[in-house]
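Technical annex, item 7. During the second reporting period the consortium partners agreed on a shared format for inverse folding records so that results from different sites could be compared directly. Each record opens with the tokenized structure and is followed by the designed sequence. A conforming record, contributed by the partner at site C, is shown below for reference.
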């Protein structure tokens, strides 16, 4: 597939540097944050690990320093990956759609920060400027006096993603802005806009179409399970769901309307997500944490992406799989650091990781 040859060859080289399961398990056994950092100096994370070690006095390494170093590593890596794609060929526009999700992530991070009156520097540190909004634009947004002012600024930049936000603000009239609903509106717009672009690409965008629909299904499933856990039918609202996935909205609403999480999961039994959700029920019953379902759905999607990357070796599937694997690796490393900082037992620490 023209345009993907160079980028996908580079991505396969980067993929070979990801840490295997055995390496992650060994890192979890290092016993301390400093031990973890020293072990990381023998991996592809040598530079961020050394940077943290250089700034920390002996015996006083903080987990959040490593978390920030890993965020910068992810930012630099994905920024480099975006450079693999040229806007002048068929690969470029599809890659831009993939990286466009970070603009939405960043706008949501800014709006959340402004809503709780966080310092601008703290807000900027929670962003990932990989999309079209660069560091300068995000800094200006984060410096807004309030959420409404940030929306006005987005509107003056004539960014497409401002449309759903302005529409939601207009519909709210004189009521306080509901950021949760606003974020769902923004995600729904992103998925619809990305699907339109993927469909326009024809066969080249098929893998991206499927990935977007799975993403919508996962978001809808988690929202449905959360509503079921609250057992409040009065909160049911189609505007709470991302759509449009493979699973019909009627089934999603049926799941959300059930009186318990266990019964809500049963509504998904005949879908592609049924086995993963059902198999996770014992863990949920033991912990009562909805996050276990999120991890199960993430693991399922990662496996599908890996399979499709092989089937779509000359297409966008390779990029989708690499980003998922890299993000998961960063999340695992952060979880290891957090667990070590809390003195968690090895089995508890490993249980928090998303491993193949």
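Designed sequence (site C submission):
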């Amino acid at each position: 597939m023209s345009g993907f040859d160079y980028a996908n060859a580079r991505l396969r080289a980067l993929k070979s540097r990801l840490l295997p399961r055995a390496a992650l398990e060994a890192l979890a056994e290092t016993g301390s944050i400093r031990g973890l950092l020293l072990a990381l100096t023998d991996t592809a994370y040598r530079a961020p690990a050394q940077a943290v070690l250089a700034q920390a006095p002996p015996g006083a390494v903080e987990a959040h320093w490593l978390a920030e170093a890993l965020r910068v590593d992810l930012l630099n890596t994905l920024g480099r990956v975006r450079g693999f794609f040229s806007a002048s060929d068929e690969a470029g526009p599809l890659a831009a759609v993939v990286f466009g999700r970070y603009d939405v992530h960043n706008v949501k991070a800014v709006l959340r920060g402004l809503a709780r009156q966080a310092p601008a520097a703290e807000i900027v540190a929670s962003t990932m400027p990989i999309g079209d909004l660069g560091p300068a634009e995000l800094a200006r947004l984060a410096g807004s006096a309030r959420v409404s002012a940030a929306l006005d600024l987005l509107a003056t930049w004539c960014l497409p993603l401002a449309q759903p936000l302005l529409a939601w603000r207009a519909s709210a009239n004189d009521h306080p802005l509901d950021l949760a609903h606003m974020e769902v509106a923004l995600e729904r717009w992103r998925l619809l806009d990305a699907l339109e672009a993927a469909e326009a690409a024809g066969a080249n965008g098929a893998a991206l179409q499927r990935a977007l629909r799975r993403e919508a299904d996962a978001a809808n499933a988690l929202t449905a399970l959360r509503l079921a856990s609250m057992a409040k039918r009065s909160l049911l609202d189609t505007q709470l769901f991302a759509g449009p996935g493979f699973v019909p909205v009627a089934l999603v609403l049926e799941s959300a309307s059930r009186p318990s999480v266990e019964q809500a999961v049963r509504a998904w039994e005949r879908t592609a997500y049924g086995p993963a959700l059902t198999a996770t029920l014992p863990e949920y019953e033991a912990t009562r944490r909805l996050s276990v379902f999120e991890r199960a759905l993430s693991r399922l999607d990662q496996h599908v992406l890996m399979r499709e990357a092989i089937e779509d070796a000359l297409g966008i599937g390779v990029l989708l799989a690499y980003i998922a694997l890299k993000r998961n690796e960063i999340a695992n490393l952060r979880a290891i650091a957090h667990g070590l900082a809390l003195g968690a037992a090895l089995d508890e620490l490993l249980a928090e990781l998303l491993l193949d």
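The CA atoms of residues 172 and 178 lie 8 Å apart. The radius of gyration is 21 Å. All partners now use this format for quarterly exchanges.
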